[in-house]
Write a structure and sequence with these properties.
Layout (H helix, E strand, L loop, with lengths): L6 E7 L3 E8 L9 E4 L6 H16 L7 E8 L2 E3 L4 E4 L12 H8 L8 E5 H12 L7 E7 L3 E7 L2 E2 L32 H5 L1 H10 L9 H9 L3 H25 L3 E5 L8 H12 L10 E3 L6 H14 L13
Parallel strand pairs: 1-4, 4-7, 8-11, 11-12
Antiparallel strand pairs: 1-2, 2-3, 5-6, 8-9, 9-10
Helix pairs in contact: 1-2, 3-9, 5-6, 5-7, 6-7, 7-8
């Protein structure tokens, strides 16, 4: 009789919502994920309450004897050895310095001896895509997520290289001077990659260029570009090139086997994607001319899968690395 695979409770803490799921060691979500609003500006205690509540709901619905650990992906830089938040943006209030593991153990007495792994959300996305997504089977993967913010992660053999200070991949903080004629911030710098190229920058650029006021998000501008709006198309191409240029620098430093683009902005076939890829390839030597650039496949499930896989790893539970082929 085949034993049922081990389970992990996985949590993805975003600025607007917190998603939870139960994942088995084959990379399968064993039931539909559940979501709760994230009280991002109510302080760390309120956020920890939501995370703990989400975990408890999953726990009450599973066979506790199969539970191997808890994995969490969250916005912000995380010291994965302690579970403490070491950097945070203004998306969260009072998140910096939070000891996530201690906060959860205080709220979840039943989990006192259960392994808990906490990591940055983009890192979790990268692990999930490496395990069951666009990077499955690749020895190394560079993940670049472009949405409300910008973050990156580099996976080697399915594990994120986090750096000596748990800050590897915080590329949104890079100081850049675009020099492409589209000046979004005329005041003296420093200007960051995130402020100059993420989703909100697309909207800001559209307004700077005189676009009509009905667009409320960067994704709306992307849709206008697809519909033929010339201002939107110009903005989307310009900011796509910005991302492609920085991406070429990252590729030259890390030399990954595959690049995976995630977040709400990258859409394959869009003017943004085409401009990014053109600028990326222009900045690379012939030796990496055939570098695959893929759209993340797991989308909103990637961070949950990655959080679960690293929880299994912490617990010493083997996972299935390559999906089994479907019977003929």
């Amino acid at each position: 009789m085949t034993q049922d695979p081990a389970l992990a409770i996985a949590i993805d803490v975003g600025g607007t919502k917190t998603a939870a799921a139960t994942v088995d060691a084959t990379g399968t979500l064993v039931r539909p994920k559940a979501k709760r609003p994230t009280p991002a500006h109510a302080g760390s205690e309120a956020v920890l309450d939501v995370i703990a509540g989400s975990i408890t709901t999953q726990y009450e619905r599973l066979d506790a004897s199969r539970l191997a650990g808890i994995g969490i992906g969250t916005a912000g830089g995380v010291d994965t050895t302690t579970g403490r938040i070491v950097s945070s943006s203004d998306t969260f209030t009072g998140w910096l310095g939070t000891d996530v593991i201690a906060g959860l153990r205080a709220r979840l007495p039943w989990a006192a001896d259960l392994p808990i792994h906490v990591q940055n959300d983009v890192d979790a996305h990268a692990v999930g895509e490496s395990w069951r997504g666009a990077g499955a089977g690749a020895a190394s993967l560079l993940m670049l997520a472009v949405g409300t913010g910008i973050g990156a992660a580099h996976c080697v053999d399915g594990q994120v290289l986090r750096g000596a200070h748990s800050m590897a991949g915080e590329v949104g903080r890079l100081r850049i001077v675009p020099g492409d004629g589209l000046d979004l911030h005329p005041e003296p710098g420093p200007h960051t990659f995130e402020n100059e190229a993420a989703g909100p920058a697309i909207l800001h650029a559209y307004r700077v260029r005189g676009g009509p006021g009905e667009a409320a998000r960067g994704q709306h501008v992307m849709k206008l570009a697809r519909a033929g709006d010339p201002i939107a198309a110009e903005v989307v191409r310009t900011l796509g090139r910005r991302v492609g240029r920085v991406l070429s620098w990252l590729v030259l430093v890390l030399d990954p086997e595959v690049v995976v683009l995630g977040g709400g902005v990258p859409v394959r076939g869009s003017a943004w994607w085409d401009a990014l890829e053109s600028e990326l390839r222009a900045g690379l030597p012939d030796a990496v001319a055939d570098l695959p650039v893929k759209r993340a496949q797991q989308r909103n499930d990637a961070a949950l899968l990655g959080a679960a896989r690293d929880a299994f790893r912490l617990a010493g539970v083997a996972t299935t690395d390559v999906p089994e082929e479907e019977p003929a």
